[in-house]
Amino acid sequence: MTFAYQTAASVAEASKASLAPDAKLIAGGQSLLGTIKLGLAMPEALIDLGAIADLKGIKVEPGKITIGAMTTHAEVAASAEVQKAIPALAELAGHIGDRQVRNRGTIGGSLANNDPAACYPAGALGLGATIHTDRRSIAADDFFVGIYTTALEEGEIITSVSFPVPAKAGWQKFKQPASRFSLVGVFVSKSPSGEVRVAVTGAGAGGVFRATVVEQALAANWSQAATSGVTVDADGLNTDLHGSAEYRAALIPVLAGRAVAGS
Protein backbone atom coordinates (compact mmCIF):
# COMPACT_ATOMS: atom_id res chain seq x y z
CA MET A 1 0.00 0.00 0.00
CA THR A 2 1.04 3.61 -0.46
CA PHE A 3 0.45 6.56 1.82
CA ALA A 4 1.64 10.10 2.39
CA TYR A 5 4.10 10.62 5.24
CA GLN A 6 4.52 13.82 7.23
CA THR A 7 6.80 14.66 10.15
CA ALA A 8 4.94 17.17 12.26
CA ALA A 9 6.92 20.06 13.75
CA SER A 10 4.36 20.89 16.45
CA VAL A 11 1.34 19.45 18.23
CA ALA A 12 -0.90 21.98 16.52
CA GLU A 13 0.40 20.95 13.09
CA ALA A 14 -0.07 17.27 13.89
CA SER A 15 -3.60 17.82 15.18
CA LYS A 16 -4.63 19.71 12.07
CA ALA A 17 -3.08 17.15 9.72
CA SER A 18 -4.73 14.24 11.53
CA LEU A 19 -8.18 15.60 10.65
CA ALA A 20 -7.65 14.76 6.97
CA PRO A 21 -9.64 11.73 5.69
CA ASP A 22 -7.98 8.40 6.56
CA ALA A 23 -5.02 10.08 8.28
CA LYS A 24 -3.39 8.44 11.29
CA LEU A 25 -1.03 9.75 13.95
CA ILE A 26 2.04 7.58 14.57
CA ALA A 27 4.04 7.64 17.78
CA GLY A 28 6.28 4.59 18.25
CA GLY A 29 4.32 2.65 15.63
CA GLN A 30 4.39 -0.62 17.53
CA SER A 31 0.62 -1.06 17.28
CA LEU A 32 -0.22 0.82 14.11
CA LEU A 33 2.39 -0.77 11.85
CA GLY A 34 1.27 -4.24 12.92
CA THR A 35 -2.34 -3.51 12.01
CA ILE A 36 -1.24 -2.08 8.65
CA LYS A 37 0.75 -5.24 7.89
CA LEU A 38 -2.31 -7.35 8.70
CA GLY A 39 -4.49 -5.21 6.45
CA LEU A 40 -6.62 -4.07 9.37
CA ALA A 41 -5.73 -0.42 8.82
CA MET A 42 -5.14 1.31 5.49
CA PRO A 43 -4.34 4.95 6.20
CA GLU A 44 -3.82 7.34 3.34
CA ALA A 45 -1.51 9.54 5.43
CA LEU A 46 0.72 9.09 8.47
CA ILE A 47 1.63 12.01 10.72
CA ASP A 48 4.78 11.27 12.72
CA LEU A 49 4.99 12.81 16.20
CA GLY A 50 8.63 11.83 16.74
CA ALA A 51 10.16 15.24 16.04
CA ILE A 52 8.06 17.16 18.58
CA ALA A 53 10.46 17.79 21.47
CA ASP A 54 7.70 19.12 23.74
CA LEU A 55 6.19 15.63 23.89
CA LYS A 56 9.29 14.02 25.40
CA GLY A 57 10.83 13.91 28.85
CA ILE A 58 10.13 13.22 32.52
CA LYS A 59 9.44 15.91 35.10
CA VAL A 60 9.29 15.44 38.87
CA GLU A 61 7.19 17.76 41.02
CA PRO A 62 6.05 17.51 44.65
CA GLY A 63 3.68 14.56 44.87
CA LYS A 64 3.64 13.69 41.18
CA ILE A 65 5.70 12.70 38.18
CA THR A 66 4.81 13.77 34.65
CA ILE A 67 5.91 11.81 31.59
CA GLY A 68 5.79 13.22 28.06
CA ALA A 69 3.64 11.27 25.63
CA MET A 70 6.55 10.44 23.28
CA THR A 71 8.77 9.10 26.07
CA THR A 72 9.62 5.48 25.29
CA HIS A 73 9.03 2.52 27.56
CA ALA A 74 12.79 2.02 27.84
CA GLU A 75 13.27 5.62 28.99
CA VAL A 76 10.60 5.25 31.67
CA ALA A 77 12.10 1.96 32.86
CA ALA A 78 15.62 3.43 33.05
CA SER A 79 14.62 6.73 34.68
CA ALA A 80 16.13 7.18 38.14
CA GLU A 81 13.30 9.61 38.93
CA VAL A 82 10.59 7.07 38.09
CA GLN A 83 12.47 4.28 39.87
CA LYS A 84 12.61 6.41 43.02
CA ALA A 85 9.10 7.89 42.95
CA ILE A 86 7.06 4.97 41.54
CA PRO A 87 9.25 1.86 41.20
CA ALA A 88 6.25 -0.26 40.18
CA LEU A 89 5.73 1.96 37.11
CA ALA A 90 9.38 1.56 36.10
CA GLU A 91 8.98 -2.19 36.58
CA LEU A 92 5.89 -2.21 34.37
CA ALA A 93 7.63 -0.27 31.60
CA GLY A 94 10.69 -2.50 31.76
CA HIS A 95 8.71 -5.63 30.90
CA ILE A 96 6.58 -4.37 28.02
CA GLY A 97 7.17 -6.49 24.92
CA ASP A 98 10.82 -7.03 24.04
CA ARG A 99 13.83 -4.72 23.86
CA GLN A 100 12.96 -3.49 20.37
CA VAL A 101 9.40 -2.63 21.39
CA ARG A 102 10.55 -0.86 24.56
CA ASN A 103 12.94 1.33 22.60
CA ARG A 104 10.31 2.37 20.03
CA GLY A 105 6.97 2.20 21.83
CA THR A 106 5.76 5.26 23.74
CA ILE A 107 3.52 5.81 26.74
CA GLY A 108 1.22 8.14 24.81
CA GLY A 109 0.87 5.72 21.92
CA SER A 110 0.04 2.86 24.26
CA LEU A 111 -2.63 4.82 26.12
CA ALA A 112 -4.17 6.23 22.94
CA ASN A 113 -4.34 2.76 21.36
CA ASN A 114 -5.83 1.23 24.55
CA ASP A 115 -5.17 -2.38 23.67
CA PRO A 116 -7.26 -4.54 26.04
CA ALA A 117 -4.15 -6.44 27.17
CA ALA A 118 -1.67 -3.54 27.27
CA CYS A 119 0.24 -2.74 30.45
CA TYR A 120 0.19 1.07 30.60
CA PRO A 121 -3.62 1.38 30.85
CA ALA A 122 -3.46 -0.66 34.08
CA GLY A 123 -0.66 1.55 35.40
CA ALA A 124 -2.56 4.74 34.60
CA LEU A 125 -5.86 3.50 36.02
CA GLY A 126 -4.21 1.83 38.99
CA LEU A 127 -2.41 5.01 40.00
CA GLY A 128 -5.26 7.40 39.23
CA ALA A 129 -3.24 9.20 36.58
CA THR A 130 -4.32 12.24 34.61
CA ILE A 131 -3.93 12.20 30.83
CA HIS A 132 -3.16 15.66 29.44
CA THR A 133 -3.97 16.51 25.83
CA ASP A 134 -3.61 19.59 23.66
CA ARG A 135 -7.16 20.50 24.71
CA ARG A 136 -7.82 19.31 28.27
CA SER A 137 -6.90 17.02 31.16
CA ILE A 138 -8.74 13.70 31.54
CA ALA A 139 -8.80 11.52 34.65
CA ALA A 140 -7.83 7.91 33.95
CA ASP A 141 -11.22 6.79 35.31
CA ASP A 142 -12.86 8.71 32.44
CA PHE A 143 -10.27 8.08 29.73
CA PHE A 144 -10.64 4.35 28.99
CA VAL A 145 -13.99 3.84 27.28
CA GLY A 146 -13.69 0.33 25.79
CA ILE A 147 -11.53 -1.91 23.64
CA TYR A 148 -9.27 0.30 21.50
CA THR A 149 -11.51 3.22 22.48
CA THR A 150 -10.74 6.24 24.64
CA ALA A 151 -12.25 9.61 25.45
CA LEU A 152 -9.98 11.27 22.87
CA GLU A 153 -11.81 13.30 20.25
CA GLU A 154 -10.90 13.69 16.57
CA GLY A 155 -7.59 15.51 16.26
CA GLU A 156 -6.94 15.44 20.02
CA ILE A 157 -3.39 14.47 20.97
CA ILE A 158 -2.01 13.20 24.28
CA THR A 159 0.83 15.49 25.37
CA SER A 160 1.76 14.02 28.77
CA VAL A 161 0.60 11.84 31.65
CA SER A 162 0.79 12.84 35.33
CA PHE A 163 1.05 10.12 37.96
CA PRO A 164 0.47 10.92 41.66
CA VAL A 165 3.21 9.41 43.80
CA PRO A 166 1.63 6.62 45.89
CA ALA A 167 2.51 5.50 49.38
CA LYS A 168 2.71 1.96 48.00
CA ALA A 169 2.30 0.40 44.57
CA GLY A 170 2.93 -2.93 42.89
CA TRP A 171 2.57 -4.62 39.50
CA GLN A 172 2.22 -8.26 38.50
CA LYS A 173 1.78 -9.63 35.01
CA PHE A 174 0.89 -13.14 33.90
CA LYS A 175 1.95 -12.93 30.28
CA GLN A 176 1.24 -14.78 27.07
CA PRO A 177 4.76 -16.10 26.27
CA ALA A 178 4.74 -15.33 22.54
CA SER A 179 3.26 -11.83 22.48
CA ARG A 180 4.22 -10.85 26.05
CA PHE A 181 0.86 -9.16 26.41
CA SER A 182 -0.97 -9.75 29.67
CA LEU A 183 -3.30 -12.72 30.00
CA VAL A 184 -3.93 -10.92 33.27
CA GLY A 185 -2.02 -7.94 34.63
CA VAL A 186 -2.80 -6.26 37.95
CA PHE A 187 -1.56 -2.89 39.21
CA VAL A 188 -2.28 -2.00 42.84
CA SER A 189 -1.69 1.27 44.68
CA LYS A 190 -2.36 2.89 48.01
CA SER A 191 -2.30 6.69 48.12
CA PRO A 192 -0.87 8.74 50.98
CA SER A 193 -4.48 9.39 52.05
CA GLY A 194 -5.26 5.65 52.06
CA GLU A 195 -7.22 5.30 48.81
CA VAL A 196 -6.72 1.85 47.30
CA ARG A 197 -6.89 1.23 43.55
CA VAL A 198 -6.63 -2.10 41.75
CA ALA A 199 -6.57 -2.03 37.94
CA VAL A 200 -6.74 -5.14 35.76
CA THR A 201 -5.69 -5.56 32.14
CA GLY A 202 -5.91 -8.56 29.82
CA ALA A 203 -8.90 -10.10 31.59
CA GLY A 204 -11.85 -7.86 30.78
CA ALA A 205 -13.89 -8.18 27.62
CA GLY A 206 -14.28 -4.40 27.72
CA GLY A 207 -10.61 -3.66 28.37
CA VAL A 208 -8.90 -2.35 31.50
CA PHE A 209 -11.07 -2.08 34.63
CA ARG A 210 -10.92 -1.60 38.39
CA ALA A 211 -11.45 -4.67 40.56
CA THR A 212 -13.56 -3.09 43.29
CA VAL A 213 -13.98 -6.28 45.32
CA VAL A 214 -10.20 -6.54 45.63
CA GLU A 215 -9.94 -2.83 46.43
CA GLN A 216 -12.38 -3.27 49.31
CA ALA A 217 -10.39 -6.15 50.77
CA LEU A 218 -7.11 -4.24 50.55
CA ALA A 219 -8.63 -1.06 51.94
CA ALA A 220 -9.48 -3.04 55.07
CA ASN A 221 -6.11 -4.78 55.21
CA TRP A 222 -3.23 -3.93 52.87
CA SER A 223 -1.62 -7.37 52.77
CA GLN A 224 -1.23 -10.35 50.50
CA ALA A 225 -3.29 -12.41 52.94
CA ALA A 226 -6.27 -10.09 52.46
CA THR A 227 -6.63 -11.13 48.82
CA SER A 228 -6.61 -14.88 49.45
CA GLY A 229 -10.31 -15.05 50.28
CA VAL A 230 -11.50 -12.72 47.53
CA THR A 231 -13.65 -14.11 44.73
CA VAL A 232 -13.83 -12.18 41.47
CA ASP A 233 -16.93 -12.68 39.31
CA ALA A 234 -16.01 -14.27 35.96
CA ASP A 235 -18.99 -12.67 34.22
CA GLY A 236 -17.75 -10.28 31.54
CA LEU A 237 -14.20 -11.63 31.49
CA ASN A 238 -12.40 -13.05 28.46
CA THR A 239 -12.37 -16.66 27.40
CA ASP A 240 -9.95 -17.70 24.67
CA LEU A 241 -7.49 -20.46 23.80
CA HIS A 242 -5.11 -19.20 26.50
CA GLY A 243 -7.55 -19.35 29.38
CA SER A 244 -11.19 -19.28 30.42
CA ALA A 245 -12.98 -16.42 32.11
CA GLU A 246 -12.97 -18.44 35.33
CA TYR A 247 -9.20 -18.93 35.08
CA ARG A 248 -8.65 -15.21 34.64
CA ALA A 249 -11.02 -14.43 37.51
CA ALA A 250 -9.01 -16.73 39.78
CA LEU A 251 -5.74 -15.09 38.71
CA ILE A 252 -6.81 -11.54 39.59
CA PRO A 253 -6.70 -11.81 43.40
CA VAL A 254 -3.58 -14.00 43.24
CA LEU A 255 -1.70 -11.42 41.18
CA ALA A 256 -3.07 -8.58 43.29
CA GLY A 257 -1.71 -10.28 46.39
CA ARG A 258 1.70 -10.72 44.81
CA ALA A 259 1.68 -7.07 43.73
CA VAL A 260 0.90 -5.99 47.28
CA ALA A 261 3.68 -8.22 48.62
CA GLY A 262 6.12 -6.52 46.28
CA SER A 263 4.94 -2.98 46.97
Automatic annotation (TrEMBL):
This is Xanthine dehydrogenase family protein subunit M. It comes from Roseateles agri. The keyword Oxidoreductase applies. Keywords: FAD, Flavoprotein, Oxidoreductase. PANTHER family: XANTHINE DEHYDROGENASE SUBUNIT C-RELATED. Residues 1-168 form the FAD-binding PCMH-type domain. Transmembrane segments: none annotated. Signal peptide: none annotated.
